[in-house]
Structure formats: structure tokens, C-alpha cells
Amino acid sequence: MITRASSIASRSRLSHARMYERLLANDPTCDGVFFTGVLTTGIYCLPSCKARKPRSENVRFFRSVEEARAAGLRPCRKCHPDDFARGVDPVLESIEALVAEMRRDPAAFPDVRAVVRRSGFGTTRLFELCRLHYHATPAELLLRARIEAAKRLLFKSPRPVADVAFAVGFESLSAFHEQFRARQGLTPGAYRDLAAPGARTFTITLPPGCAWPEMHRALGRDPHSLTDRHDGTDYSAAVRLAGSPALVRVHFAGDEVHVETPSGAAGAAHAWLVRLLGLEQDAAGFTRLAHRLGLQRLVAGRAGLRGLQTHTPFDGILWAIVGQQITLSFAFQLKRRLTERFGTEVGDGLSCVPGVRELAAIEPGELKELQLSAGKAAYLVGAARAVAAGNFDPEAMPAMSATRVERTLRGVRGLGPWSVNYIMMRALGFADCVPLGDTGLTSGLQRLFQLEQRPDADATRQLMSPFAPFRSLATAHLWLFKNKSTP
């Protein structure tokens, strides 16, 4: 006989009422902190389970799945709490294996129906799982696989462009050119030229409707930066291309962007610029969604806005740690001090921010001298040492599933839910992130929906839900949304 007398509420800082509140909110941050048992069904779940919510009096909370089983309950088949407790996720692993297969041989999947058949899931379920774990549809994942496979062939093979197009699964040469240019800013032939020995210049074309003013403001938001410089038409940046410090010069001329790089670094510089400017983000898709939701005012005047990315994935981790809970101006100041003390000069008065190797080699006390708090200094050095030791690889994360990335980053000391989502959005390019607790986001939501006060985490999660699967772009727009009466 199951009783409610010995719930974990009496042995935890969380009361029964608080845990029930988290259950109603589907709070994923409580997964593993406690497990939810439903007495009327005899099932135990994760707090984030999307199953129908039970009444409070029918719920008992447990510290472990062992406790729940000992109480006579069985695991939920929807959220698989036992798999979570063991660190095993068969459904995620099957989706990751499917994506890896598409990337190895995209031509083996002539269309999305073939992807569905290979997955073993139904169409609707596969759609849900791809959105959940990769922030993309199966069709988008297949297209990305085709483009990446084509890029590899263009760089490494002398095969004609048409042969490359058909080898990766495109049905026509025109479709290949259109999709490739839309995402890479140049034609397949021009991309192949980047691999030429000594190649050091190239030109890309920006997508139609690109939000120019916002892009330029973002590039030049720290006028005293030691890592990059922007004057409206010319942008210079100290970046690491294939791990080596380099100076890249960019000139904006209408919808064309002319780039100059060190000799032989054109391919790496192109990849850096595409991710920096967010060229592969679906700005048009988000604009259509905003219009369907009746929120045209959110995108008015900046329908082509893309979220600019940090120079490298690790730069994003550095910035998330340094910028926590301080003003933007002080965060810029700390970044300049870090760069001046530990960065690498590349010319034109610019230096790369310290990378993994530099930060891993210093002691946290050296960072405290620059006015970083003891906690931030320890977190930053600790993260660098974890990467240097091979515990995780930020450079590999953009190709991983969002779920795997989130779980990995949450295991890094000093990175909480806000930091993890910020890094995934601003450094790794994931499309459906919500940095809960971000004051700019909550202020934007308050103005957009004319709320009396800024929303808390649960309200933020609920208000952002209709923007899925474009919540990263929604966040970028909300950061800029100044006037609730904007037409």
C-alpha cells in the first residue's frame, strides 16, 4: 500500500508545494533533483514530463528511481525516468545516429520520407524529436547534411560542380546553386576557389533584407575593443582561424562583403564569417511566424535580423562567464584587460582574446588582479583546463545535438541555465534557446505584451513558447524591442 507520509519533502529543502509547482511548470532543471510519483496511475516520471498533470494530493515525490520502484510504482514510458537516472537516452541516441548517417551519406536519403522510414518513428514523432534535440526539422537537417558534404567535396575533389551536386543528393544543379549561395554567400564554384594555394580574398553576398543597422551596431558595440574594430563600412578582427591567431579585414559595400585574410586562410575565414553574421539562420522563417502570431511590431524595421555569433565557441564560454551579473560596460572592460594581459597580437593594434591554452596555463589569482571575482576567475580557468584535458570540445559542439550540448555544458562548473542557453544561442548557433532570467529578454517581453511587471522564469517560458522553433531569434528581437507602441 502506497502512503504519502514519507515523501522527500520532509528530507529536502524543497517543500511538497514547491516541487508540485515545478511539476506544473514542466521544469527541466528539476529532472534528477526529484522524481514524481502519481498514486492514481502507479507511474513515476521526471518533473519535465509532458503527461497530463495530476492533482497535488495524488502526487508523491522521490529522491531516486529506486525509491519510486520500492514504493510499487513503474516508470513512465513517455519520459523514461530510469534512462535519465542512468545517464542513458536511447531515443536521443537513435536520433543522433540517424543524423550521423545523413551526414555520412546524404544521397542515401532522396527525400524526407526516406528519413522517416530509416528512423523507425512516425512522421509527427520524428518531427518532434528533431525539433527537440537539434532545433531543426528533418528536412532542414537533410539539407544541412547535403551542403556540408558538398563543401567537403568541393574542397577535396576536382569533380565538376554538377557531379558534386548529384553526389550529395540534389535533384537539380539549379537547386544546388540556390541553396548553397543562400547559406554560404557565394556560388559553389567561388567556394571551391577558397581552397586554392595562397587564396586570401573572397566576396560574399548578404541575404536579401539583411538588417544592416542592427548588424553594424552589434559589430561595433564596444568602441574601445582590443579584439575588433568597426567604423561602419570596414571591420577588422583578431580571430583564431584553424587554431592560429590571424587578422581578418572585412569591407561592407552594399549587399557585398569583401574579405581579406592571411594567405591560405580563406576557407577558414569564410566559415568564421558565415557563423559570425548568422547567415545560415532562418530570419525569414521567424518573420513569417511573427506575422502569423499577430506580432508584426516585434520585427518591424528589422525583419532580416540575425543573431551575431561570438568569434569562436570558446569565446562564447569566456564571455558568458565574464559577463555574468555585471553591467555591459564593465564586462567590456574586463574583456579588454584579459586581452591586453593574456591575448595574442595580430597587427593593426588588435589581439585575440586568450584562448584555451593561454587560460589553462595561468592561475585564477592572476585573473583576480584584473578585477575578476574569485568565482569567475576559478570558473574561467577551470573551463579552459577542462577543454585542454579533453573533457569537452567547444569546437565540436555546433555539430552535436542541442540536448547533448546542454547536458555537457551544465556539467561545467560556473555555467548555469542562463549561461548554457546564452552560449548555445550566441556561440553555437542553436535556433531554439531561451536564456531564462535574462533581464533584456524579460524587459522586451514586458514591453511587447504590455505587462505590469517583468515575467518570472515560468511566465517567460510560457510567453516564449509560441516562438518555437525560433526562440533564439525571438530573443534577439526582444533585446532590441524598445517601444511597445511600435507599429
Question: What would you note in describing this structure?
Answer:
This protein has 487 residues and is α+β, with helices and mostly antiparallel strands. The chain folds into four domains: 8-86, DNA Methylphosphotriester Repair Domain (3-Layer(aba) Sandwich); 89-193, Homeodomain-like (Arc Repressor Mutant, subunit A); 198-280, DNA-3-methyladenine glycosylase AlkA, N-terminal domain (TATA-Binding Protein, 2-Layer Sandwich), CATH 3.30.310.20; 313-480, Hypothetical protein, domain 2 (Endonuclease III, domain 1, Orthogonal Bundle), CATH 1.10.340.30. It is built from 24 helices and eleven strands. A hairpin with a 2-residue loop joins strand 7 and strand 8. The radius of gyration is 24 Å and the shape is globular. It starts with 15 loop residues before the first helix and ends in a 7-residue tail after the last helix.
CATH architecture of the largest domain: Orthogonal Bundle
Number of helices: 24
Span from first to last CA?
A: 61 Å
Q: Which range does the strand content fall in?
A: 5-15%
Radius of gyration: 24 Å
Structural class: alpha+beta
The largest beta-sheet arranges its strands as: 5-9-8-7-6
Name the CATH homologous superfamily of the largest domain: Hypothetical protein, domain 2
Write a concise keyword list for the protein shown above:
Arc Repressor Mutant, subunit A; DNA Methylphosphotriester Repair Domain; 5-stranded antiparallel β-sheet; alpha+beta; 4-stranded mixed β-sheet
